[in-house]
Design brief:
two-stranded antiparallel sheet, mainly alpha
């Protein structure tokens, strides 16, 4: 009996090169997803609202997200290590009050109020870092305690009242312009560059990623985990300190109520920007884009007269969506 002939299938089996190209394309799309989202939002809003794409409005958006982005730079490093910090908003308050106390005209040089404010921010971050790194208490609990305590201290410092009457030099930090661009934006760019260099181009930055990827493996490879965690929480406090000084200058008062909810907006910017809550993944550039997405969204809805209540709802939906996307991306 003759054996039936089996005809070769016309289907082509993808070669290794085509599979590599597909993976490379998917990697590029995954890497620049948030940038494409930001670009799409800008295009859509510029069509819907003609006043959106003006130089004045765009500068206003960047200035509005400056404080959130700066706080987010510190939070990016903390979240990469699988940590969290709920205290930046309260640190902003205590720094704004303390720096305002030393910013009255004719009393102290500008540098004094800046040093006082930044030192308080670093000190708060140091306390967080020491407890998290040495006592192994969950960062959520530690920073929640700092959030409550720092807010209380800001009320004690100010006796519950705003502190006003600043020198012209201090006012310039938050309200001054250089070549037609708000001085705050220059600070944002400088802090962003420094944070990016630390995270992507230093041994310390590699240690931060390693701890977030696998802390036990980081210990075995010789990384000083305690020292690295101490640094990231101190840096987070420093960034909140910078934001606190800029906020006091911008609104013309050091207020114990300042910074309410800033930590949530900053965490949202970090997560939307691609930093994984699982640790080991995240960039400063991504956080900046995440903050811009929030700023563009808020500004666009303001121009379209969307209720602030609905803005909060939409922001919450976006945060949850970003976390879901992060989960599937990690899988």
């Amino acid at each position: 009996m003759a054996t039936p002939k089996i005809e070769a299938s016309n289907m082509e089996i993808p070669n290794k090169q085509s599979l590599f190209d597909i993976k490379k394309l998917l990697h590029i799309l995954n890497k620049f997803t948030i940038f494409f989202i930001l670009l799409a939002m800008v295009i859509i809003l510029s069509i819907i609202e003609p006043n959106f794409l003006t130089s004045v409005n765009l500068l206003n958006i960047v200035r509005q997200i400056t404080l959130i982005a700066i706080i987010g730079f510190g939070l990016t490093m903390i979240i990469i290590t699988t940590g969290i910090d709920l205290s930046p908003g309260s640190i902003v308050a205590i720094v704004s009050v303390a720096s305002a106390m030393y910013a009255h005209p004719g009393e102290y040089p500008l540098v004094v109020s800046i040093i006082v404010g930044l030192s308080l921010g670093v000190a708060a971050g140091l306390i967080n870092g020491l407890i998290v790194a040495n006592l192994k208490i969950p960062a959520f609990i530690v920073t929640l305690g700092m959030m409550i305590s720092a807010r209380g201290v800001s009320y004690i410092f100010s006796d519950g009242h705003p502190i006003t009457g600043f020198s012209k030099e201090f006012d310039f930090i938050g309200r001054g312009y250089v070549f037609g661009i708000p001085f705050m934006i220059y600070v944002l760019v400088l802090v962003g560059i420094v944070s990016h260099i630390i995270l992507r181009h230093t041994r310390l930055g590699k240690s931060i990623y390693a701890i977030g990827g696998n802390e036990q493996a980081a210990v075995v490879s010789g990384i000083n985990v305690k020292r690295t965690l101490l640094f990231v929480y101190m840096y987070g406090g420093l960034m909140a300190g910078v934001a606190g000084i800029m906020l006091a200058s911008r609104i013309g008062a050091g207020q114990p109520t300042a910074g309410l909810g800033y930590e949530l907006d900053a965490i949202a910017a970090v997560v939307i920007g691609g930093t994984s809550l699982m640790g080991g993944v995240g960039t400063i550039v991504g956080t900046l884009i995440g903050a811009l997405i929030i700023g563009v969204l808020n500004n666009g809805m303001d121009l379209m007269h969307v209720s602030g209540y609905w803005q909060q709802v939409l922001k919450g939906v976006i945060i949850v969506g970003a976390i879901i996307l992060d989960k599937y991306r990690n899988q």
